[in-house]
Amino acid sequence: MHAGNLRSGTPENRYSKLFPNERVSYWADSPQTSRAEVKYHNADNNLLTFWAYDDATSTFPTRADREPLIIIDGRNLEFNKILHKIESDQKLTSGEKNLIVQIASQYPDCLVYESLRREGGLNFLFFEKGFHKLSIREVRIRLSDYKGKNTNRIVCAGTSDYLPYPENYGMYFRPIAKTKMNLTYQKTEEYKNRSTIYK
Question: Model's pTM, two decimal places?
Fold first, then answer.
């Protein structure tokens, strides 16, 4: 359900200029930070919001990979300033380019850095390896351009302990903001793996 969040390098993807050979996914520390980022990048009022968590450290893991997330703290490295230069089409210094090479050479799962859009907010750049260590807690849809009941959610893990509901990965949104279960999902290897490990 969340596979679309893993993006390949494209010209409009600002991270492609930094990590051209990586598929990446970017996340925020809160809905407030994510909305600030979305607003800046001129998205409309119809939003699909994902809430993810580190599967390996959860009370009820659903994935076989138990390797802890390898996270580089880009706050001390002022990675947000490098990203700002990329977005502004400014040239990076040799030191900044070297820093990007060093980050990539560590083969991290994730890079955390200060948000450019919300003071105190944090953003997380997940590389493909780290992205696959995430599980979904909840997906929310908000269709603000439509009247009537235009919000809904799909819960994939509940309670404070992140109790998983593996079958809900097979749910999807239908017009307008209704949910439906894709019964064929329970025949997939992903569902079998998640449900087997959890049980």
Answer: 0.86
